[in-house]
Amino acid sequence: MPLQITASPDDPALLLDLPWEVPLEEWPDDQLVSLPRGISRHVVRFVRLSGRVYAVKEVSERPARREYQLLRQLNRLAVPCVDPVGVITGRETPDGQRLDPALVTRHLQFSLPYRALFSRTLRADTATRLLDALAVLLVRVHLVGFYWGDVSLSNTLFRRDAGAFAAYLVDAETGDTHERLSDGQRGHDLELARVNIAGELLDLQAGDYLHHSIDPIETAERIVARYEALWSEITYPQVIEHGFRRYGLDARLRRLNDLGFDVSEMTVSAEGGGVRIQPKVVDAGHHSRRLLRLTGLDAEENQARRLLNDLDTFRAATNSTADDEEIIAHRWLSFVFEPVVSAVPRELRGKLEPAELFHELLEHRWFLSEAAGRDVGLDAAIDSYISTVLVNKPDERAVLGARIGTPSTASSMEDTAEMRLVFPEEL
Length: 427
Hints:
Elements: E1 4-7, H1 12-15, E2 44-49, E3 52-58, H2 61-76, E4 84-89, E5 102-106, E6 111-113, H3 124-143, E7 146-147, E8 156-161, E9 164-169, E10 176-177, H4 183-206, H5 216-235, E11 238-241, H6 245-258, E12 261-271, E13 274-284, H7 286-295, H8 301-317, H9 325-343, H10 354-372, H11 378-388
Antiparallel strand pairs: 1-4, 2-3, 3-5, 4-5, 6-8, 7-10, 8-9, 11-13, 12-13
């Protein structure tokens, strides 16, 4: 059977350069990239082609094609997940031995598996932020009718998001799409999350890789409470009494926006002495879309909120409240954001993505100003941040360290847990 590549238009020629006639676990080191990796029951390797990094997973043909299509669907629905690139079938060694097909995805820059974040030095509040991010991701996939079927920390990648984390779905192998999920399907996914997360944390605890303040069972239960509270806020029907209709409707929309969601349609009906409202279609990424529209910057939700707050501060400080928002955004981008990013030495630009770097700079400026009793200014904050904070950070684009923990049977697009990442600045 000849080699066949099913891929997006930009990638087939690049993929032909890889040694598909060699088993993935035997690929030469000069083909591979060292990156922090999670756990998987499959062989996974990272490769670099024309400046891009790809994850390659060996898996049988039917699951590979199914996961490829599911990831394409999720991408079209704007669900945070890895980008599918292609499926390679018909692989054979030079002597005619058949090899498993391979699924290829693009590596998510600046992302980390959970084992690179949980360690004895990580506090319980950071664990809470990770689980909050996973709860938000689970709500988002359920809103579009996607049943995950294997919710776990192992099947998720995390990116920093202005002091919080953003979660991305990595493994869609067990998933399925529906027009709408039943309460039973959502409940089953939630129970899987609770059980899997408890098991993963107990596994870390047994290896003495979990901070003593983190209770695995209590922490796993927290994602259930967080999910249910978020799902209720997004979907529950609300009755607003007569005389408070506009205020009540505006307040509901504002709460949803604060959670990062947009309402594109609502059902409003009379009920007794008031009205009953219920969000009909809810889209995630309210602040991210606004920032992208105004500046062209593609950021995580909390990062976007922080950058927009700074844009609003810039608008007030420059007495430009009468100007169009788009004009102010262009000025802020030219005179505030871009100079900050450009001030970072080239050799340090792999430490953090630009939006996260800008957020941390604003935090650093605030602490310096509080200590000085005055605003120290952006230039002084940049110099101090680069020399005292950024230079000591690990490069999150590519970090490889010692193996940690015991691989479990949970499936993910990442490979065995190899890393040494600790972030003392968060402690």
